[in-house]
Input
Amino acid sequence: MSLEQWGLIYIGIISIIGFYVMGLDKKKARKNEYRISEKTLWILSFLGGAMGTYWGMKHFRHKTKHTSFREGLPLLAIIYLVIVIILWTR
Output
C-alpha cells in the first residue's frame, strides 16, 4: 500500500473516532456524567479527525453554541478535506 493510501485510511479511522467521541460526550452531557474535555476534542480534530468531529457536532447537535467549535471545526474540516482530495488524486 502506498503512503497516500495509508494517509486516507488514517484520516478515515480518526474521523470515525472523532464522530464517536462527539456522540459519547453528548450522551455524557445528557446524563450529567464526567465529560470529555474540549481540549481532547480539539486535539483529536487536529490529529486528523476534524471531519468526523464536525459531522458529530452536526449530527448530535453538540457544541453548536460554542463559537470556537461552530466556526473553527468547519474550517479545520475543510483543510482536512483538501488533504483527502490531494491524497486521493495522487
Remarks:
- Residues 41 and 76 are 13 Å apart (CA to CA).
- The chain has a mean pLDDT of 96.
